[in-house]
Amino acid sequence: MIELEGVPELIDPVMVAAFEGWNDAGDAASAAVAHLDKEWKGEVFAALDAEDYYDFQVNRPTVWLDGGVRKITWPTTRLSVVRVGGDKPRDLVLVRGIEPSMRWRSFCNELLGFAHELGVELVVILGALLGDTPHTRPVPVSGVTSDPDLARTMDLEETKYEGPTGIVGILQEACTHAGVPAVSLWAAVPHYVSQPPNPKATLALLNRLEDLIDLRIPLGELAEDSRAWQLGVDQLAAEDSEVAEYVQSLEEARDTAELPEASGEAIAREFERYLRRRDGGPSGGPAGHATEGGDTAPYLRDTPSERTRPPRPQRPDPGADASGGSGDGDGTEGPGTSSDTPPDTSADPGDDSSEDSQE
């Protein structure tokens, strides 16, 4: 039995989840949920028992000092709630954690128990994968679901992926079997500059989430960080002629694939999205600002990583599968697995047929 003491009745709640590890290339997805939690001052109301789901030799606990007293932080998954103000207030239930090492079915059932008790109307799971996409172009974001009706009503692609999967895919299927509407949003991260952070991919996920749930999300410094990240990678790529030539080939392939999308309808759709963000969202009013309250309790957060110079792009290996990775917790799938998106994400970035990548 899940007890939710101190959690008020929520308004049209949406659960937004992301998990560090295999489904989180460049830490783009987990950083997106962390951004929402920071901007809207999320209040943690539950944490799953780390003993049930994590191998501590894989995800080790950390020791830290609090006023001279040594304390331990265990790897886990935390749930927080934020109330978004505006003309049409609503609540978000934020789920942020690490992909579990074991008992995935129990893990998903526990999260679904919280969703049921809180009256969650939609679950949105964020993920990121490595792909053949140039860092100089907009980040492709695919929206997929296992629900045919949801795919039709929300202009998403119905997943037909078959192959190895991660906790994102398992949780989405668990939601489907439980009758809870669920959507996965996947950002494609350039495989030649896969090291975190990747603020450009995080920004792309938040923009797509904004459209999906009809809320204006305050972006803070993300836009500036995204520009700085791209400029830094530009400079590093220019220092290596082979990398620069490779990036140019990706740009040409991407631009060629996008030519059919340069239609009046596509341009009008993007212009509508721009107007919504500029004017405060379709519902009007200053949406996207948390209601202020003096009783929001602070809680232990991971120490944010300091901003660093973007890593040197990796020299492309013509014999390697660019869309794959080591699958060792860096947000990538292993070699030969196509994630839930076709390996060449540059082939048709405007087509959301990229399956439920890296479920």
Automatic annotation (TrEMBL):
Record field: compositional bias (Acidic residues): 349-359
Biased composition range(s): Gly residues: 322-334
InterPro entries with a match to the protein in the record: Proteasome_assmbl_chaperone_2 (IPR019151), PSMG2_sf (IPR038389)
Region (Disordered): 277-359
Protein name (record): PAC2 family protein
Naturally occurring in which organism (per UniProt): Streptomyces antnestii
